[in-house]
Design goal:
heterodimer, A: mainly alpha, 12 helices, elongated, B: mainly beta, 4-stranded antiparallel sheet, 3% helix, WD repeat (chain B), protein phosphatase regulator activity (chain B), PP2A_PR55_CS (chain B)
Chain lengths: 283, 420
């Protein structure tokens, strides 16, 4: 560990990371994908930490985001060349997805580590403890965490599934669902993404309104309901999915108007309601 | 004493200003050489101390604005008073530092203690007489340039016309007139329409020492752009673009981060400029854009420690660099309270330490060496025992003589050439 001075108490996670980064620097035998994964972990952790700050450092955030992009690009190119995944074969258990969808890998990783350990200790020989710990924090957990964080950061690219997923039978039907969810989230993100730099936009502009366009603040408030003249029924309170999806369809015939514009408005409102339903169903 | 955040000599070198994290400015003055005390050749003593910036709270955004002084730049002296610009993250202030060593006595309407005299008592007119008093140095803010920067100011630079100056933040550079505080011109704006597309920020900017229309700014991608203000009002298109092609053999995950330029300084001659990135200092000829003419390794032994330095955030430390008066040598800081000096002519370099233990007054500094591997010799320090909390980010070189000022956290060291 670098630096002189009194030894201070680190949290478990910090100690792991410090140990891992020393391993990165000193070990020459660490395989490249693992090194890359470690760096990616560190980058994402830092970005998460910065997001929680009131005023994150723009310079650092840009540098780290560029590093993440670069690694992501590299990984995507590799996965394009090699459809069979290269990462060690740890089957994605249901554990790997719980708690990983939301942001905050720094919180989830310790629990993820212990869960994965119990799952994969028989799959992988424990010869090299450092390599093993790196493996544990890599792979499926990271890829799902990465995709969720990058969505937050609004780096969403194409619709390809996350890398390093072992295509098992379970996963096949999941892909289309993931795809559609991603599309929905795209739209939601486009509306008012709270990405790293987006927060800079609002929090850093001069308080004297020289830079700030008032509209930017209210961008994510959906005012389409108030804009339309068409009398659209208000959103129903959440009900069992089967009932809820039928409700809007039932109420629309009550607005008997044959004009094309009304039908158009019907359709957009329908899709919006679908969208809202999917979120309710999905959560 | 607070952590020193900037160090700057004035044009004559008689005054040395330091700014600290608490918003204070301390100015040191060089003592006149006197025959009676030949050994106290030009010592620097405290001349003036004042609070330049206070912490502010932006109520609209619920943000605290730090009072830390990011940069101080002196104005050329035009009369008996001294002027300097000091800036924190958001506001630049012009300070006047003036001496008062005489006092007027014998006012007609006031008593000596300032009370108004009874008009009926005044029977004769007298002319007030100036009497000497103890030297008093006063600092007063003459201009406040505020509300022009959305992002954090990282540089200010006084133009050679002595009338204007620039201030740069992460995404924009503004041009000011020293007399006008309610207006500034935006001359560079690299903010993208969509903030998610942001990949590069401005890290430093400086005016050319002789051509008042030319300035440069450096970026987090290791590039420098030279702009000519005569070409257009908004200098979004550069006149020259300096970038060294990447060495593919030394590519790593951290290549971009360590290429980010933390400081850019023109040489006194105006022919060269120097840039500091994390591991090296590069000297560029303004006439050659595709690569630097000289590259000096500051602490190459850190290249194999980049992951650890990234983990503890040291990789983001912003080191400054400076030229000596004749442009024959350059200086920059490192870790463990080490600083490095490079002689451009002889290509010799030296590592010195700024610490109380290793420097007694008038003692000669001993060169230090970092052991990179293998057997450590006596007096060498191994890379793993370097103290990364003791970093020298700010150094300054006297404009004419071999006197240097080195800021080591909250201590200021001033070193001079050996006297024969």
């Amino acid at each position: 560990m670098l630096g002189r001075g009194l030894k201070r108490k680190l949290s478990d996670y910090e100690e792991n990371m410090a140990g891992l980064s020393s391993a990165f620097d000193s070990s020459r035998n660490l395989p490249y994908p693992l090194k890359r994964q470690l760096v990616l972990n560190m980058c994402l952790t830092k970005l998460q930490t910065y997001k929680m700050l009131v005023e994150p450092n723009l310079h650092r955030s840009v540098l780290i985001a560029n590093t993440v992009r670069q690694i992501q690009e590299e990984m995507r190119q590799e996965s394009n060349q090699q459809p069979v995944n290269v990462c060690p074969g740890i089957t994605p258990s249901s554990h790997s997805y719980t708690g990983m969808e939301s942001s905050g890998i720094s919180l989830q990783l310790p629990s993820g580590i212990s869960q994965q350990e119990s799952n994969c200790c028989d799959l992988r020989s424990v010869e090299d403890p450092i390599e093993n710990s790196l493996l544990i924090v890599s792979d499926d957990d990271m890829s799902s965490a990465i995709s969720s964080i990058l969505k937050d950061l609004d780096f969403v690219e194409d619709i390809s599934p996350p890398t390093c997923l072992v295509p098992t039978g379970d996963d096949q039907p999941k892909f289309p669902e993931n795809t559609s969810l991603k599309l929905e989230d795209d739209r939601q993100d486009l509306k008012g993404a709270e990405c790293v730099f987006g927060s800079f936009e609002i929090s850093n502009s001069t308080s004297y309104l020289k830079d700030l366009a008032i509209d930017d603040i209210f961008e994510d408030i959906d005012t389409s309901m108030y804009d339309s003249d068409f009398c659209c029924p208000p959103l129903m309170p959440p009900r069992p999915p089967s009932l809820a999806t039928e409700e809007p369809l039932k109420t629309f015939p009550s607005c008997n108007s044959s004009s094309a514009s009304n039908i158009q408005i019907c359709r957009t409102d329908l899709s919006e309601l679908d969208h809202i339903m999917e979120i309710l169903v999905g959560s | 004493a607070d952590i020193i955040s900037t160090v700057e000599f004035n044009y004559s070198g008689d005054l040395l200003a330091t700014g600290d994290k608490g918003g204070r400015v301390v100015i040191f003055q060089r003592e006149q050489e006197s025959k009676s005390r030949p050994h106290s050749r030009g010592e620097y003593n405290v001349y003036s101390t004042f609070q330049s910036h206070e912490p502010e709270f932006d109520y609209l955004k619920s943000l605290e604005i730090e009072e830390k002084i990011n940069k101080i730049r002196w104005l050329p002296q035009q009369n008996a008073a001294h002027f300097l610009l000091s800036t924190n993250d958001k506001t630049i202030k012009l300070w006047k530092i003036s001496e008062r060593d005489k006092r007027a006595e014998g006012y007609n309407l006031k008593d000596e203690d300032g009370r108004l005299r009874d008009p009926f008592r005044i029977t004769a007119l007298r002319v007030p007489i100036l009497k000497p008093m103890d030297l008093m140095v006063e600092a007063s803010p003459r201009r406040i340039f505020a509300n022009a920067h959305t992002y954090h100011i990282n540089s200010i630079s006084v133009n050679s016309d002595h009338e204007t100056y620039l201030s740069a933040d992460d995404l924009r550079i503004n041009l000011w007139h020293l007399e006008i505080t309610d207006r500034s011109f935006n001359i560079v704006d690299i903010k993208p329409a969509n903030m998610e597309e942001l990949t590069e920020v401005i890290t430093a900017a400086e005016f050319h020492p002789h051509h008042c229309n030319v300035f440069v700014y450096s970026s987090s991608k290791g590039t420098i752009r030279l702009c000519d203000m005569r070409s257009s009002a908004l200098c979004d298109r550069h006149s020259k673009f300096f970038e060294e092609p990447e060495d593919p053999s030394s590519r790593s995950f951290f290549s971009e981060i360590i290429s980010s330029i933390s400081d850019v300084k023109f040489s006194h001659s105006g022919r060269y400029m120097m840039t500091r990135d994390y591991l090296s200092v590069k000297v560029w000829d303004l006439n050659m854009e595709n690569r630097p003419v000289e590259t000096y390794q500051v602490h190459e032994y850190l290249r194999s420690k980049l992951c650890s330095l990234y983990e503890n955030d040291c990789i983001f430390d912003k080191f400054e660099c400076c030229w000596n008066g004749s442009d024959s040598a350059i200086m920059t800081g490192s870790y463990n309270n080490f600083f490095r000096m490079f002689d451009r002519n002889t290509r010799r370099d030296i590592t010195l330490e700024a610490s109380r233990e290793s420097s007694k007054p008038r003692a000669i500094l001993k060169p230090r060496k970092v052991c990179t591997g293998g057997k450590r010799k006596k007096d060498e320090i191994s890379v793993d025992s370097l103290d990364f909390n003791k970093k020298i980010l700010h150094t300054a070189w006297h404009p004419m003589e071999n006197i240097i000022a080195v800021a080591a956290t909250n201590n200021l060291y001033i070193f001079q050439d050996k006297i024969n």
